[in-house]
Write a structure and sequence with these properties.
3 helices, 155 residues, 15% helix, two-stranded antiparallel sheet, 36% strand, Jelly Rolls, alpha+beta
């Protein structure tokens, strides 16, 4: 079994019993693309204070966890890793939840700006290296109740 299949199994197994594919819940983000589908349990960062803190000071995070940053509208955004203790992948998505950029393995503590490269309204942070293992790339789609007018809408 390849590393991509193992990573996907870990993400889905750690997330708990499988619910209907793509079921919409505030604490869950689904992704789909050529790799198939993946699900992450997430904390939401949808206020300026929550977005400012992000995953700072988190010492470890299960493979099935992440944080979804939600902005009021699509705009150029940039992140840094100040006070962040674990490497992260940042998945930038536009207002329809379509991935526009994936930044892999952001370095803990690094103050270098990590820009979205295009207007983004949503940013999913997951453990560093997982996006590559799963095959998450630009063009993949996110599904979450906060994504109004989504390319992959909630039922």
């Amino acid at each position: 079994m390849g590393s991509r299949a193992v990573a996907l199994m870990l993400v889905l197994a750690a997330a708990g019993p499988l619910e209907a594919a793509g079921a919409c819940r505030d604490d869950t983000v689904w992704l789909r693309g050529p790799f198939g589908e993946a699900r992450f349990s997430v904390d939401l960062a949808d206020s300026p204070q929550e977005r400012s803190r992000g995953l700072m000071f988190v010492e470890r995070m299960p493979a099935s966890r992440g944080m979804l940053f939600v902005y009021p509208d699509a705009r150029p955004v940039a992140f840094w890793m100040k006070n962040t203790l674990i490497p992260l992948d940042m998945i930038f998505a536009d207002g329809q939840g379509v991935v526009v950029r994936v930044h892999e393995n952001a370095v803990p503590g690094d103050l270098t700006s990590i820009p979205s490269g295009a207007p983004a309204q949503f940013v999913l942070e997951i453990n560093g290296g997982l996006a590559r293992q799963l095959g998450i790339a630009p063009g993949a789609e996110l599904r979450h109740p906060a994504i109004e007018g989504a390319a992959w809408p909630c039922n």
